[in-house]
Structure formats: structure tokens, C-alpha cells
Design brief:
This is ATP synthase gamma chain. Produces ATP from ADP in the presence of a proton gradient across the membrane. The gamma chain is believed to be important in regulating ATPase activity and the flow of protons through the CF(0) complex. GO terms for molecular function: ATP binding; proton-transporting ATP synthase activity, rotational mechanism. The chain has a five-stranded mixed β-sheet with strand order 3-2-1-4-5, sandwiched between helices. It is elongated. It folds into two domains: about 5-15 and about 240-280; about 30-235, Pyruvate Kinase, Chain: A, domain 1 (3-Layer(aba) Sandwich). Helix 1 runs antiparallel to helix 6 (about 205-280) and helix 4 packs across helix 6. It has about 280 residues and is of the alpha/beta class. The protein is built from six helices and five strands.
């Protein structure tokens, strides 16, 4: 390798470093915004779940189809897969794909995909995609996704609805999980069970109130999963671009040492040639 080739590689690595550094900064800004939205969404979702626990504990499950397991429905699952539209986010999508393959029955499921990467993956494993929401603004499609989910479950096309996504835990950690959003189930903590439930009056009607609460819960659950996935995506992309920038720095450093070494060798050989020529003339 000559010095010209080394200089070209240094220039190329420097350009790559500029790109990865810019992507890292953009992802950091988006990550902060997405993280704040994810934290705020958790508070609302937690309070909504608490209300449903209190009301559902005193209500008959027959009041809403969303509380009932559709035993006479087709033995088929509707799965919502939340992935990304773009790459350059490390193992974010790969971990989700591996989790889906391990924990879902592809042949017995229909899929709603959010993100281009997820759509390509489901098609590659032979899954049936009934709706593809590959959009740069996925939160704008929550109402449409919710309507598809409710119609499919209440019309007994599916006996279960799951969401597969990467849950945001921290900037350095995302965990692929699956959550069942229909039928609605709630786990009562031991302290809540022991607590004496106060008598309260449901107005205007238990059926109307429970249906509205459960519909809001399912829609907000889909939105919350999307927000968590978006926060995890930007965190993963920021970390991936940071690692890429550091690797580019290492490559540039090593190539610079190699360039200096080649240049010093060239100077040494030229000096030796000059000394040899001088000794020849003198002799």
C-alpha cells in the first residue's frame, strides 16, 4: 500500500466519521424528546389501569366483549409488530425478529406491521400481513390500527391480539416483549385484593362506562407501545452511531500511523540513495 492509497482511506474514514457524528447528534435530540414522551405516557397508562382494576373488580365480564375470551372464535391470533423504517440502529430490529420467531406461531397469525423493516421480515418468514403502516409518523395511525384490532376481535376473527415491540427501559437497554391487549386482563396486586373496596355508583350505565374505558385502554396501550418503541429506536441509533464514530477515530488513528511510517521509510530510502551516490562520486 502506497502513501496515496493511505491518504484516500484517511479522507474516506474522516467523511464517514462526520456522517456518523451528525447522525449521533440528531438521534440524541430525538431520543430526549421520545424519552420524555415515554415517561409521561407511563403515568397516564398506569392511572388508567388502576381505574379499570377498580371498576372491573365490581363489574360482570359479560358487560363487555373486550373482557371475554372469544371461545367460539377462529383459533387465530392478530399480532402487531412495531419495528423501524430505517436502519443504522444496531441490533434493535434483529433482537425483535429473533423474539418473534421464538415466541409466536407465524402460520396461525395475521400481522399488522408498523415500520418497513418489520414488513420485510414478516414477508420473509411467510407471515400473512393484513395491514402495513410504514409511515414516518406512526402515532398518526393509532386510531386506524385500533379500529382494525377492535373489529377483528369483536367479530370473532381472532381470539387474541398481541403486540410485539422493543420496550424502552433506559438509554442503554431495550427489551423485546410481547403483550396481550385483547382480551383485556388485569392482575390485582395482593395489597389491592386485601383492601376494602368502597361502594360506588356507576353512571350513566356500567356497560357504557366499561366499554368506553376499555376502548380507551386498548387505544392508549397501542399508543404507549409505539412511544416506547420509538424511544428505544432513537436510543439504539444514538448508541450505534456513537460506536461507529469511535471506530472511525480508531481507523483514522491507525491509518495516520501507517502513513507516517510509509513517509519515513520513503525519506530514509531517499537519504540512503543520496549517500550512496555521494560515496560513488567521491570514490
Amino acid at each position: 500500500m502506497n502513501i496515496r492509497e493511505v491518504r484516500k482511506k484517511i479522507k474516506s474514514s474522516t467523511n464517514v466519521k462526520k456522517i456518523t457524528k451528525a447522525l449521533e447528534m440528531v438521534s440524541a435530540i430525538k431520543m430526549r424528546k421520545a424519552q420524555s414522551e415515554a415517561i409521561e405516557a407511563r403515568v397516564y397508562q398506569t392511572n388508567l389501569e388502576e381505574i379499570i382494576k377498580k371498576v372491573a373488580a365490581k363489574a360482570d365480564p359479560k358487560l363487555s366483549l373486550l373482557l371475554q375470551t372469544q371461545k367460539d372464535a377462529i383459533d387465530r391470533t392478530l399480532s402487531i409488530v412495531i419495528s423501524t423504517n430505517k436502519g443504522l440502529c444496531g441490533s434493535y430490529n434483529f433482537n425483535l425478529y429473533r423474539f418473534i420467531i421464538k415466541n409466536s406461531q407465524v402460520k396461525n397469525s395475521d400481522f399488522i406491521v408498523i415500520g418497513k423493516k418489520g414488513g420485510l421480515f414478516i414477508n420473509s418468514i411467510g407471515g400473512q400481513v393484513i395491514a402495513d403502516f410504514a409511515d414516518n409518523q406512526p402515532l398518526a395511525n393509532v386510531s386506524a390500527i385500533f379500529q382494525l384490532v377492535i373489529d377483528g376481535f369483536t367479530k370473532k376473527k381472532y381470539n387474541k391480539v398481541n403486540v410485539y415491540y422493543n420496550k424502552f427501559i433506559s438509554t442503554l437497554k431495550n427489551e423485546p416483549i410481547a403483550e396481550t391487549i385483547l382480551p383485556v386482563t388485569y392482575k390485582q396486586e395482593e395489597s389491592f385484593i386485601k383492601e376494602k373496596i368502597e361502594e360506588f355508583l356507576i353512571e350513566p350505565d356500567p356497560r357504557v362506562l366499561i366499554n368506553q374505558l376499555l376502548n380507551s385502554y386498548v387505544e392508549e396501550k397501542i399508543r404507549d407501545c409505539l412511544i416506547q418503541a420509538i424511544a428505544g429506536e432513537h436510543s439504539s441509533r444514538m448508541i450505534a452511531m456513537k460506536n461507529a464514530t469511535e471506530n472511525a477515530n480508531d481507523v483514522i488513528y491507525n491509518l495516520t500511523l501507517l502513513r507516517n511510517k510509509i513517509r519515513q521509510e520513503k525519506i530514509t530510502y531517499e537519504l540512503l540513495d543520496m549517500m550512496t551516490a555521494k560515496e560513488s562520486v567521491e570514490s
